[in-house]
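For practice. Any example?
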Amino acid sequence: MKRMIQVLFASVAVFVLAACGSSASGGEKTEKLVVGASNVPHAEILEEAKPLLKEKGIELEIVKFQDYILPNKSLYEKEIDANYFQHIPYLTQQLKDNPKYKFENAGAVHLEPMGVYSKRHKSLKDLPNGAKVILSNSVAEHGRILSIFEAEGLIKLKEGKGYEAQLSDIVENPMNLEFVADIDPGLLTKTYEHDEGDAIVINTNFAIDANLNPKEDSIALEGSESPFANIITVREGDKDKKAIKTLLEVLHSKEITDFIDKEYKGSVLAVTE
């Protein structure tokens, strides 16, 4: 009887251990990875990566966010392992504004060209004198946005400011454009729908989420030379973890870059390095 009990206990122990160590193909234990992301295109790209990650032993959980504040807060509070919604200039500003955040860039995934939209005009050249231009209240985006207008010859910025420029760095504004920068990025599509300005500058992820096609519907679109690629952000010391490195490997794979090219038709550009 004692021998039978020992055998039974050993069998139960093996079963429990097997259940706790669920495996991917190849017999490796599955590791869970929780990533916070904006709905479009970030979460969609991650959904496409899910089965590829599962093959490599990573169970991906995606937590969707509607704004640009909570993803970093959740990363700091260790509710998620990484986030995927921001570019380096925005992250730099967030680290400056929140010294408690200790984050690092694990790698770039894609670029979303910033677009200018209008229900009143066909191009930036058509803007009238004193036109009202509405942009987000995200200070980290202002230089990027103003660079579009400078490239079109509508304004001139202080020498050397470029992507770091602020509204106060406009030195020439011959058309007296009125730049209004007090709108949350997520509300800009509503501002456009309500035709509240001559031109509204909208982040591509929000534009796509509102069924706008940046390539077809915008009156001006940022060039592919932009340094504002969206990145995977992690807590300091985590970028070399196996799960994070595997995530970047999959997001840079041919399967995912082909998906981005086909799904977004140039409105989102894959970054492979």
Summary: DSSP finds ten helices and 13 strands in the chain. Residues 1-23 have pLDDT under 50 and may be disordered.
